[in-house]
Each structure stands twice: as structure tokens, then as C-alpha cells.
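Co-fold these.
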Amino acid sequence: MADLTSNFLGIKSPNPFWLASAPPTDKEYNVRRAFEAGWGGVVWKTLGEEGPPVVNVNGPRYGAIYGADRRLLGLNNIELITDRPLEVNLEEMARVKADYPDHALIASIMVPCEEAAWKAILPRVAETNADGIELNFGCPHGMSERGMGAAVGQVPEYIEMVTRWCKQYYDRPVIVKLTPNITDVRKPAAAARNGGADAVSLINTINSITSVDLDSFAPEPTIDGKGSHGGYCGPAVKPIALSMVSEIARDPATAGLPISGIGGVTTWRDAAEFMSLGCGNVQVCTAAMTYGFKIVEEMKRGLSQWMDEKGYRTTADFIGRAVPNVTDWQYLNLNYVTKAKIDQDACIKCGRCYAACEDTSHQAIWMKEGRVFEVNDAECVACNLCVDVCPVEDCITMERMEGGAVDPRTGQTVSNDYANWTTHPNNPMAKAAE
Amino acid sequence: MTSPQTPGITSGRLSQEQLAQNFEDLHAPCDGHEAAVAADRCYFCHDAPCVTACPTDIDIPLFIRQISTGMSEAAARTIFEQNILGGMCARVCPTETLCEEVCVRETAEGKPVEIGRLQRFATDSLMARQGHPFARAEATGKRVAVVGAGPAGLACAHRLAMKGHEVVIYEAKPKPGGLNEYGIATYKTVDDFAAREVDWLLGIGGITIEHGRSLGVEVTLDGLVENFDAVFLGMGLGGVNLLEIDGGEMAGVEDAVSFISALRQAEDRASVSVGRNVVVIGGGMTAVDAAVQAKLLGAQSVTLAYRRSQAEMPASRYEQDLAASKGVHLLCNVMPVAMHGDGAVAEIELEYTQVVDGRVTGTGETMRLPADQVFRAIGQTLAPADGLEQERRKIKVSDTGRTSMDGVWAGGDCTPGEDLTVVAVAEGRDAAEDIHVALMA
Ligand SMILES: Cc1cc2nc3c(=O)[nH]c(=O)nc-3n(C[C@H](O)[C@H](O)[C@H](O)COP(=O)(O)OP(=O)(O)OC[C@H]3O[C@@H](n4cnc5c(N)ncnc54)[C@H](O)[C@@H]3O)c2cc1C
Ligand SMILES: Cc1cc2nc3c(=O)[nH]c(=O)nc-3n(C[C@H](O)[C@H](O)[C@H](O)COP(=O)(O)O)c2cc1C
Ligand code: SF4
Ligand code: SF4
Ligand code: SF4
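Predicted complex below.
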């Protein structure tokens, strides 16, 4: 049986599935039940300064995007950080940590960008015996209007400065949570590293409006006729998160910096993908908010079964395995030639591939007598669009042309040698092949 | 040429091809795409009603989600943890009165998540690729005797073996499986699934089956109690109710379970004899199975005669519709009063009934139907079980299967409760857990 135990920055947890800082981790009641349900760790809902806590709206705070059959694909929220007093949260954290010493408990913090504010809160967090802290530089709404959250996360210099304060006044691991609402995520990640961060976690939510009510002409969720952009999360954001994670994992300035992967993790497979791109663990919010705490059971069993099938004993055996395979476009092998192939036995003759290719691609699919759809290799550029729109899995496949064969589209002989754009004759900057 | 019209009881009414087609899998197994689409319909309900309705408490939302995420073998494990005969149950459970009846999508749309078919998809995928998925705990040195290798006995033996105990099963018949092997309708368990499942289950190790060794004949209860640390009785219902009417013993009047058993065991279905005009007395699952299979074997007309109204039939609506779709005539509110014929039955006389003060009584009006074969499917009974306290003509047990005798547990059809494969599995498993606690105390 695979061993799911996780060690992230020296913080041990029974499995790599942590709940992200959000409503599921907002209070003792939730966190205890989450641990009982099998979650490996939690990042407590973001704490603010001492004093009167923030207030939330009293109308709807979520908007949703659905797939077929009302499956929740994306969630958007305008919730702020915890609206409960700091002391209450700290007391609860200390109690829970004492009762669950083997589970990870991380404090998420967002206080104003002043040294005194951080200096004040850090010792109090340390007293709870939490395993580490996460700096919330990501919240894209409300808090950013007050110069916190994403407002800090968008300025690398601030990130570096605050991280340095934290390393100075706190002696356990410091994780910097990054906002995706930025042009190049490598910059804040590098700033966090320069400030001494032990790890980064990403992504926080993405600026978004889920829909507009066409009767009231107000964005959703609507509060008394008005709406505000919120933070987008859930399955829909996973591709964006994966890409950002991969950039940090492979950039020389940030490579090797531990990463906690967040954004749309819903199944064991999502988690395995994040981890293969270099994440030491994953954090989950929307999946738990959609299906309840029990969803972790599928993640654990699925990951364990997959590891058994692959012969991986521990998560370390596959963490980062996909990183070397993420590269720049210019290094992709241009001598890799494939052609679409339709399995006539599997085809149900819907014609979607034809419409897609004929109307919007390369006119490489014939529609023959009796609704027979066939690929014309002389036109097929192997774009994959037909594969993506075909409703039947594995009905259209991409078949590689062997070296020596002639590509009927280009009339050129396919070579087995690797050759990329940097050496291509059409590239004015091409270097001579070595 | 023999045909459905040939009078009397005879074999070979239909061609081999027709027979093969008639006895195909009732529900074709679903392929990966179908399973994915069906699984996507599940809402992953909280405290799901389907789980409560499953006698073995399989975590249905979890296993369905595991199918959704491409992990059908992990899904199967989730099923087998609760129900080691999850493969058979996926085929034979009347899901329309169990898990699927209460599925929230049945309530909302009249179309439940296809739990049974998804369960089959998952369990088939694991059984096709893996050996036995569980390992035994360290040996405890304890020995338990199990009577009967039916669903109750097998589930009990498996759970005990898993906990590290040694199990000896005493089984009267030459093959294991109980009614899975000898009773369940042919089209519900094709390709010798019952036998393959038992082989796979025994892969756990630590279980020996001694065939041809009957309790009350070769072995005694006192002997078992003396020689083993615990005893589990899962011998089902050995006896059958007889028709106490004029001509009830006439040639051509047969027991439905024996007919089904002969059909299940036949190498060649064309060799099994069936009447031209068949009447089945009863309204339960056995009656439906006998009637449908008689029809599938080529009987020209098959009538199921039930003494109460159609709404009161123990067979589910689904089973009734199945029978009707195969051409069985459902005749309700009638009871047999006599058989007529010269040596062998030729006609059955039925009297119309009504319910007076809760009791079924004849109206006095009778009618006759041509019948060269009549099947009794009016219930099975417990074979004598001396020394054990009884309740509703079955062995009395506690919640965890303890009988009135120290060290003796029982479960399945021989104890009160619904006579279903899945109930037998649940009772066998729960008794094993209790035996384990008792033995380790
Ligand atoms: C025709 C028919 C169709 C059915 N169809 C369905 C269906 O579709 N779905 C469903 O859920 N349920 C169905 N049932 C009910 C289901 O088969 C039973 O509830 C289930 O098999 C009970 O399991 P069991 O282990 O208690 O008994 P059994 O399956 O009867 O097994 C008892 C075992 O004990 C052995 N035995 C008996 N006496 C002795 C003895 N003295 N010594 C040693 N061994 C002994 C028997 O040979 C047998 O192997 C059907 C029943 C019948 C009769
Ligand atoms: C309602 C809601 C409140 C959130 N509050 C916080 C917060 O207080 N602090 C924080 O760091 N992230 C917060 N997040 C972001 C999540 O922690 C997480 O980064 C994001 O939802 C992406 O993960 P997911 O796709 O699994 O939901 C919140 C998200 C939601 C939906
Ligand atoms: S989820 Fe609960 S708190 Fe939120 S609106 Fe519904 S009932 Fe109210
Ligand atoms: S989209 Fe797929 S199924 Fe439809 S016609 Fe094309 S190949 Fe066939
Ligand atoms: S009741 Fe239906 S929808 Fe709900 S968990 Fe069970 S199978 Fe899924």
C-alpha cells in the first residue's frame, strides 16, 4: 500500500491534502470535523489585526458557473478575511493543534503593510503552536482596496519586505500565498524567495464577474442592485494554476522553492498533476465547499490506488516528475509529425469533427457518401481540434508518422531527428545546428 | 419437430440459437463511456439515502465518484469492503426497491442513478484484472464452523478469514454458492458468474469447504459446538411448502425451485423439459423467475396465478413488468382449488378471491385453465433445527446474529428478515464481526 504521509517544509501530515484558507477552515468546529473526515492539514481562515474584525456583506457572497446538469465548474466570492475576533481564532487554533498534533495547522495572516502590525501579531500566532504561517497576499477584492491582500501581492518589493519581517519575528516556516492577478507570477515568487520565504502557495482567486443579470443589469452576486468583482476558483481555474506553478518550478530564479499547489483541486488526479509539476502538497477549497469534507476520501483512495499501480511508495517518488517536460515553445520538436485518424468502428457519425475542421481549421476531413468521415492526410496539420470536439473518447487519435515516410501535406520526408525553431531555416535568428 | 405447441412436458421446444438469445444477460454490462455518463449523474449526497437503503451500507456516493475519477478498481474496493459479494448483488439486487428506489434523482426525475449497473462495472473491472484484493490478518488460532456455502455463509466465512480465523464450511450440495448457484434466474448471472465469484472470494485463504457434509446427517450441531470455537448457521431454507389441495401430488405438479435449479445446472438448456401450458402458483421472486424461464424455454402459454391483488405481489413492479414483457400472463385474485387430469395434470381449477377482514377467501366462482405443468412457488420453509429457539418459523437471532444457543450464530434466509442475497451477505458479515469480538475477548 502506498504511503500517503507528507512532509512539507518539515511539517508532517497524514496525507498531502490540506484545506485552503477559506470558510471550511474558519473555526474550530469545522477544522475538527475536517480532521475527523480525513484531511491532512488546514490553513486557518485568514486572520486580521487585533481590534474590531472586518465585516462581510449580508447578502449573497457567491456566484457560480455551471456545466451540464448543473455541475459547479467555477465559484466566485466576495468574502473577506475572518470576521471573528483575533483572540477567539487564536484560542481555537491552540486547542485544535493540541488535540491534533499529527495534523498540519497553518495560520494565514493579513495585516497592514507596516512592520509594527506584523511584529504584533506573529508572537501571538507562535503561541498557538501552529506549524507555520501563510501570508495572504492574494485576496483580490475588498481587502485590496484597503492596501492589503492582492494590493501587496502585486508589488514584489512589498512581498520581499513583509516576508523578511516575518522571518525576523517568527521562527517556523513562512509560506507566501500568491495572487494570480498579475502579469508574471515569477516576479512575486522570486521576491518571496529573496525575502527568505520557505515556500510559496498558489493560486489565490482570480478577479472575475460570473454573470450579469439581464433584467437588473447588475453583476452576480448582486447586493441590492450592485455587484463587485469577486475571486474565481474551482475546477475552472485549474489550468491557470497549473501553468503558474510550472513557471515557478522551472524558472532558475525560483526553481527548487517548495510549492503548495492550490486552484481547482477536485479529484486525486488534479492533486497528482499539481504534485508532478513540483508541488509538495495541495490545498483545496471549492471541492470541499461543493461536496463536503468527505470528498477527501476519494482523493486519498484514488491517489493511493494510482501510486500502487505505478509502484510509487511515497509521494516523493513522483513530486516534480513533470517539471523537466515543461519547456518553451521554441524547443518543441518540429520534426514530430502526426496525423489524425478516425476509428470508423467507434465513429457515431455526428459530423462535429467535420464542422470544426471544415469551418475553422484546415479542411482536412472528408464527408463521404453515407456520412463517412475520413481524414485527408494531405491537408491535416494535426492541430487536434477534431479530437477535442469528438464526443467519443479515443475515436480520433493522433498517429505519429515514422521517420522516412513522406508527409503528404508538405511533400517532405519525415526525420527522426529532433529539430526545433531555434535552428529552423525560416527563423531569421536561427543558430547553425551544432 | 418439437415446438411451443407440442402438448405435454417436453424438452427442445426452441432452437439452440433462440435459447441462447433468450438467456442472455438481462442487463448488458456498461462500457467505460456509459459508466462515466451514469456516474456523472450522482450528486454525492450528504448522508445519502441510497446508502441507508443498502442492507450492506455500501458507500454508494464514494464508489460512484471513484468511477467518475477513473478509478473503477478503487471503487470496487470501496464496495467489497462492505459487501464481498458485491458482484452478485450488482446483478441480482432488486435495486428498484432498495438503493435506486430512494435515490434523490428517482424522487426528482423518476430516473435514479443506475447504482446497480455502476456497481457491476466497478466490481467486474477489479475481478477481471486483480486477484483477491484483501489480505488476511495474522492468524488467531481460532476455528469457526460455517454451515452452508450460500451468500450468508460465504460472507461470514470471508470476514472471519480476513480477521485471521480458520473457517471450515460444511455444505450439503456438490457446489458452493447456495441459491446464487442453484436459484437465481439464469439471465441474471450468466457465464457461470456464481462459481467464478466463489473462487475469487476463496482467494482470501483460510477457508475450506467440505462438500456433501450436511448438518443433521454427517455432522451434528453439538459436534460442531464441541469441535470449534464458534458456529455460524447459514443453511437457508431447505424445505418447500406443498399445495394442500385435490390433485396437489399429481404428476406435472412440481416445485419451482427444483425446476429453476435443474435449469441452472443443465449443460444444455434444450434438454430441460417444460410444459406447453404452464401455470405458476405464487407472487414472489421465485414465482416470477419460474414463469419467465418457463416462457424463455419455449412454453406456449405461461400464467402466474396469485391469490391477492397485483399491488400486493411480493415481486417488485419491475419484476412484474419483466414477466409481462416476456409474455407471462399475470392473473391476480385467484387461488388453486384442484388439479384435474388422468394421472398427470391437464387442467388447474382456480377460484376467484376477495379479502375479507384481512383474510383471503374464495368468492365461490371458479374457472379452469389448461395446464400440463404446474409450479408451486408458495414459499420455502426452514428445515427442522432442533434445540434452537424460533421466531416466525425461522431461527431466532439477536441484531448481531446470536441464536439462543451459546457459541452459535445464524444469518441469511434461515433467520427472520427479508429473503434477499444482499440481506444474507449483511447478516453473515455482521455475525462474523460479532464472532470476532467474542473470540478475541
Ligand atoms: C428462485 C429464487 C430466486 C431468487 N432471486 C433473487 C434475486 O433475484 N435477488 C435476490 O436478492 N434474492 C433472490 N432470491 C433470494 C436469495 O437467493 C436468498 O435470499 C439468498 O440466497 C439467501 O442466502 P443464504 O446463504 O441464507 O441461503 P442459501 O442461498 O439458500 O444457501 C444455503 C446453503 O446451505 C446449504 N445447506 C442447506 N442445508 C444444509 C445442511 N443441513 N447442511 C449443510 N449445508 C446445508 C445449501 O445447500 C446452500 O448451499 C431468490 C431465491 C430464489 C429461491
Ligand atoms: C469563500 C472563499 C473565501 C476565501 N477566503 C480566503 C482567505 O481568507 N484567505 C486566503 O488566503 N484565501 C481565501 N480564499 C481562496 C482559497 O483559499 C483558494 O486559494 C482558492 O479558492 C482556490 O482554490 P480552489 O479552487 O480549491 O477553491 C477564499 C476562497 C473562497 C471561495
Ligand atoms: S448555505 Fe447555509 S448559510 Fe448559506 S444561504 Fe444556505 S442556509 Fe444560509
Ligand atoms: S466527431 Fe467523432 S464521432 Fe463525430 S463524426 Fe467525427 S469522428 Fe465520428
Ligand atoms: S441518492 Fe442518488 S444521487 Fe444521491 S448519492 Fe445516492 S446515488 Fe448519488
